[in-house]
Each structure stands twice: as C-alpha cells, then as structure tokens.
Design a protein that fits this description.
Length: 650
C-alpha cells in the first residue's frame, strides 16, 4: 500500500475505463467474506470493527476498574447485559408491569393513557415525537409528530407482492413471540395484530413523500392537533407520559393524513385489536433484553429473514451497542481523549476550507443559475458550520440510575432520561454545539436547520482519511465525503433551506426548473440500475436522488478542491499513476463494499443511498475529469456522452 492507495489489491484484468469499482476492488470482492453476524462487508464495516474493538476495551475497563461515576454506570450497563444467568432466570417476567397496563384498558379511549405510560419504556407508539429546530423558524425548538406503528421496515412490505413471503414469515414471528410471552389463542391474536398494522400501513406516506421538506412541514396548534386526531386524547397522553402542555402548544406534523386516517381505527369496537397490538409491541421492543429464546427468535426474523445475516452478533457486541445507546457520549469522551489527535482535526479543517472555496468557485461560474440565486447560495455557503471529531462539551449522565442486575430497567431509565433531555429543549435557545452522532460513529451528516456539516472522529481513518496519505488520496475519499455533506445543503431537499436553516424558497422559478431538469436526468440514470443479488429490482431514483446529487457534487467539488490544495506543484506520478488517477482510484477504494442479497433488496426499498458499486461507477461516468484522467473513449463501458453527463455543481 503506497501512501494510502492499496494498488496491490487492484485487478489489472479489468480496466478502470470499463469498471472502476471492480478494477480497484475486484480481488477483494472475490475473496472477502461477509462476517456471519453482518449483512455487509467493506470499508465502513472495517472501520466499524476497529471502532468496536476500541470501545470494547474502554467499556470492559470501566466494568473492571471504574475511575469515575460515569465509568461505574458504563460498567453497570455492560454487566447487566452480560449477566445471562440472571436474564435467563427472569424469562418474560420483566414484561409484567407493562402488560398489566394493557390489561387495565377498558375502552379504546384508554389507548392514550397506556401509550403515554409506555412512552418512557421504549415501546413504539402509533405516532412518534421528536424535538428539533423549527424549519420555519430555526431559532426555536418545536415538537415534531411523525407516523409510526409498523413493525416491518416500510409500508410497502404490507402491500407489495414481492414481500408476500416476508409477510408470512412475519406472521410466524409474531406468533412465536406471543407464545414465548405466555399468551394463549396465539393464531387469532396474530391475525388481529397483522391486520391492524396493515390498516395502519395503508395510511402511511411512502418514503419518497416523507423526504419532501415542504410537504412534511405542517404547523399545528394544540387545538388543531387534537382536532386532526379527535379520537385520541392528547391531554391524557401528556399526563401519562410526563409531557408538559407547552411541548404541544405548537407542533410540526409530518404526515397529517396519517393522523386523520388513524381516527378511523380508534373506534370502541376495536379494543381487543389494540390490546393485542400493544402486547406484541411491548414484547417485541423488549426482546433484545430478555432470555435467549426471545433474542434468537427476534434475530431469526429481523436478522436472517430481512437481511440474510447468518449468525446473531456475539453477546459482547450487542452489549456494546446497548451501552453506547445509553451513554454514547460518555464513552465518546474517553474515546476522543485516547484516540483522536489534533493533527487530524487541523488537516480536516484545511480540507473543509478548500472544499467550501471550491463550491464558491463552482457556484460563481454556473451558467444555469441566475445572479440572484447565486447570491443566496453564496450567503448560505458562508454560513456553513463545520464540526470535526467531537462536541466541545459532552452530555451529562448524572441523572441516570443504573443497576448491574436490571437490564430492562436500565434500558427504560436510559430512555426516560433521554426523553427528559429532549423535552427540556422546548422554550430554550438552540444548542448549536449539540451533536447527533457520537465521536466513535463511523459516519458523517449534514443538518439543514443548523446548516452544519459534522464529521465524527471514527470516520477520520483509512481508507477515508490518513495523515500520511497524499492530497490526491485524501481528497478522493474524505474530501468527497466532505463535498457530499456540503452538497446536501444544495440537493433536491437541502436547497429549500436558506443560510439560517429556515425553510424558504430562495430560488427563482427559472433556476429551480433548470435544477430539476438536471436532477431528473440523474433520476433516470439511477432508476435503470440493478445491483447483483437484487433479482432484477432496480434503484429507486426518487428515493436516492438526494444522496446521488450529494455523491456527484461531492466528488466533482473535491476534485476542484484538490486543485486548490496542490496549486501549481508538479504532479508526483506515484506508482505510475497521475494525481488525478489516484484521486478517482481513492474514491473507488473508499466505496469498497458487498451486501447480502436479502439486505440488498431491503436497502433498495428503504435506503436513500444507492448500492456501493453505483455510488462509485455511476458518479464517475458523469464527471469529465475522470474521462480526462483515464482518456476514455466511446468504446469504454464507463463512457457517457458529454451531452448526457449531469454536472450540477462543477
């Protein structure tokens, strides 16, 4: 491996002009095995494994020899998950209190009281609520109400013929969990549960509609919310959930028709159906914290059937996920102190500066955008806030009570603490230092209402980033990721937010039409693609359009930024490769990945990202700099006629 580019892994029998993805990753694709407890393999999974190894060392050290109250709590949580003898002894008994709430229901109207009481126990509701900045006024926090209630990945799973076998497997799974929980008349209960969820699904918006920033922004007063779901008493729900009235004074409802449709299901003659659905939800949501018969049945459906995963993750890995979910930033604080260097942050800062300048040059020179829209775009660009590595201050967990012998109780108390943390935001100034990922997370994100790009410490490693790698390799990998996240501020949805994070139309009609013409071409390109293992199912061009725009713009802008970083310096020609060739080869190396067939189908249905090979190959077909770097011709498989190439931000 030379300066971060693993040329030893290349398949020279495949030309980069024909298939860049397999030229770079071919031998790996042939030989790499997906771990039996994983649905995927690749660059991200390798970094996840490394992060997991480090986190295990931290957590086990906390369990053995804590040096602070937070470390003691981390140890308590870990031990409670690893105490299999205690967990097996308890069996289904930890469900008793929650199930008693369901037994106490005398009418469907009681659903509000019971759902409220379960709100802090991690039991999914018929609607979800989260607190975040108001898209219309991003200087204040507001509650958001979203559709919920389903146990399959998506509403389409309840209606499309391709998922008929999964629906049958789901019925068997529900029946198995109910049996383990000690219920009788399981067949009838199962049919009621599946029928009710199928009706709920019929009122759900699909994932494409749920991406629409404008359609999902519907302000309602408390009175309007109550009117839209008149059969559900929100005051009763609030009292049972410990939610103050101010939280619902004004809310954003993402899918209003779901709430009005839900009214038709909250009738008094459906008490038994709702009770069975609640019993299923209680047992299902707690299954990971119960005895092995629950755990393995849950994995058999959600892991093996839905994702094609061969084996359940080892218990210690599941324990890490649990502890991180409960005290992620406390672990992150230790992770940062021991594993994140200032040098990486400084190098990233320089790259972000160049990426933003590259976007500035691109926007300024766009032929399809008017000066009025350019001015707004540049103002937004100037307002971007980058966050690198970790938050300046970490979350306070002093209010969390933990017991080493009470796994489900620990989970419930952790959930309750986070609910209180979120509810407390209402009426307070926006916390612009807050992070929505922990430092040990291998990922990155763009937050439109704060107009920020965030890069946790764990992604700042090879093959995405290396202090020792040359600029071509770093810009082709993490540089393109940076460009991707900035690009979300200008994709089909992010472009509806201005520089303050407000949902506002700052485009002229002509510019929006020109933009949508280009993105429709990109939509058509991806909609024709079908990955290996998908049995002919193609990419959903509408669902993936935002991420595809991000990939295309990110790589194109990263190439411009590479030019800014290297200036007039001579091309070093490393390993017989030009700087530009190494840039694109690094891009392909970063997206190395393979996915199990069942997981491929699931992702095509629910994931807004395209499959790895298309994130690599379809993007470069649109970028003229790639064709120049490898001197492609119309005889090459990667060739795309210049007139057909989509160039939005380059």
């Amino acid at each position: 491996m030379s300066q971060g580019l693993n040329t030893d892994n290349f398949d020279n029998s495949i030309r980069p002009q024909d298939d860049l993805f397999r030229h770079v990753n071919g031998p790996w694709l042939e030989s790499a095995e997906i771990q039996p407890d994983r649905a995927t393999a690749g660059a991200f999974v390798d970094l996840l494994d490394e992060s997991e190894r480090i986190i295990r060392e931290i957590i086990e050290r906390c369990a053995e020899a804590p040096t602070s109250d937070d470390e003691r709590k981390i140890g308590d949580l870990y031990r409670s998950f690893m105490d299999t003898e205690r967990i097996e002894e308890l069996g289904a008994r930890p469900l008793a209190d929650a199930l008693a709430l369901v037994d106490s229901m005398e009418s469907t109207a009681d659903l509000a009281r019971v759902l409220g009481a379960l709100e802090r126990k991690g039991t999914p509701s018929v609607f979800g609520m989260w607190i975040g900045p108001d898209r219309g006024n991003p200087d204040r926090y507001i509650a958001h109400i979203v559709q919920s209630g389903l146990s399959l990945p998506d509403e389409s799973y309840y209606r499309e013929e391709q998922f008929a076998e999964i629906r049958e497997a789901y019925r068997s799974h529900v029946a198995a969990i109910l049996t383990l929980a000690g219920f009788d008349d399981v067949a009838a209960r199962t049919e009621r549960i599946v029928a009710l969820e199928t009706e709920l699904a019929s009122h759900h918006w699909d994932r494409v509609a749920c991406r629409d920033a404008n359609k999902t922004y519907n302000l309602m007063t408390a009175a309007e919310l109550q009117e839209s779901l008149s059969a559900f008493d929100f005051d009763v729900w609030r009292a049972a959930a410990g939610v103050k009235a101010a939280v619902l004074d004004e809310v954003v409802v993402s899918q209003p028709s779901f709430l009005t449709g839900l009214n038709s299901l909250l009738t008094e003659d459906r008490l038994v159906e709702w009770q069975d659905w609640l019993r299923w939800k209680i047992a299902h949501s707690a299954a990971s914290y119960l005895s092995d018969d629950f755990v393995y049945e849950n994995f058999n459906f959600y892991g093996r059937t839905l994702s094609g995963t061969d084996e359940i993750r080892p218990r210690w890995k599941r324990a890490l996920s649990f502890v991180e979910g409960a005290m992620g930033e406390a672990i992150g604080k230790i992770y940062v102190a021991e594993h994140f260097g200032a040098e990486a942050g400084a190098r990233m800062g320089d790259m972000i500066t160049n990426l933003i300048e590259a976007y500035r040059l691109s926007i300024t020179g766009l032929s399809w955008m008017s000066d009025a829209t350019k001015s707004e775009a540049l103002t937004k660009l100037d307002s971007f806030t980058p966050k690198i590595g970790h938050p300046r201050e970490f979350k306070d967990y002093s209010g969390l009570e933990t017991e080493p012998g009470d796994l489900l109780g620990n989970a419930n108390r952790s959930m309750s603490l986070e609910v209180d943390r979120e509810l407390a935001k209402i009426g307070k100034p926006i916390d612009r230092d807050e992070w929505y990922m922990t430092p040990q997370t291998v990922n990155a994100y763009y937050n439109p209402t704060m107009n920020e790009i965030v890069f946790p410490a764990a992604i700042l490693q090879w093959p995405f980033f290396s202090i020792d790698a040359d600029d071509a390799v770093n810009y082709g990998a993490i540089g393109a990721v940076i460009g991707h996240e900035i690009g979300h501020g200008f994709d089909d949805q992010g472009s509806h937010y201005d520089g303050t994070g407000a949902l506002r139309n700052w485009w002229t009609d002509e510019d929006r039409a020109a933009f949508e013409k280009m993105t429709s071409s990109l939509f058509a390109q991806y909609s024709a693609l079908s990955p290996e293992g998908a049995d002919g199912q193609t990419v959903n061009g509408e669902l993936t359009i935002g991420e595809n725009i991000g990939d295309l713009g990110g790589l194109a802008i990263a190439h411009i930024a590479l030019g800014l970083a290297t200036g007039d310096s001579p091309d070093p020609m490393t390993d017989g490769l030009t700087r530009d060739q190494r840039f694109f080869l690094s891009w392909a190396q970063a997206w190395r990945g393979k996915v199990r067939p069942a997981e491929t189908v699931r992702r095509l249905t629910v994931d807004p990202h395209s499959p790895p090979e298309f994130r690599c190959n379809q993007v470069i077909r649109n970028i003229s700099a790639f064709h120049d770097a490898f001197e492609t011709t119309d005889q090459d498989a990667s060739w795309l006629e210049p007139a057909e190439r989509v160039a939005i931000w380059s």
